[in-house]
Amino acid sequence: MFRNLRLSTIGCAILAILVASVEAQQQPVAHHGRVRVHFIAAEEIDWDYAPLGRDASTRRCGLLGDIEQVSESLKRYPWTTLAALKGDPQVLRKLEETEKLLKDLKKALSR
Q1: Among 32, 46, 57, 59, whose CB has the most other CB atoms within 10 angstroms?
Q2: Which tens digit of pLDDT belongs to each residue from 45-57?
Q3: Which residues on adjacent β-strands are paired with residue 34?
């Protein structure tokens, strides 16, 4: 998708340059005593089409970025919501699984 978008942008820029070139070759007609020549340039840029509300420069990639996302997500839950889940066997079982996974990961990375 991005390649097609980039090609169509470059195609539009080339077309604009050709039109400007043809107009420049024709006899210029002075309007109000001035002749204006406009140049258009095309250059590739990276564009974030679906921003996540955070600055891309502060996002980390890989495992560290995933751990930070999980941590930030859990911090957003209000204590009243957490209090309502107190004693829920499904939540406790999932927390135990996650805790074991994190402990195993920490042990593997600490060696």
Answers
A1: 59
A2: 776 666 555 555 5
A3: 31
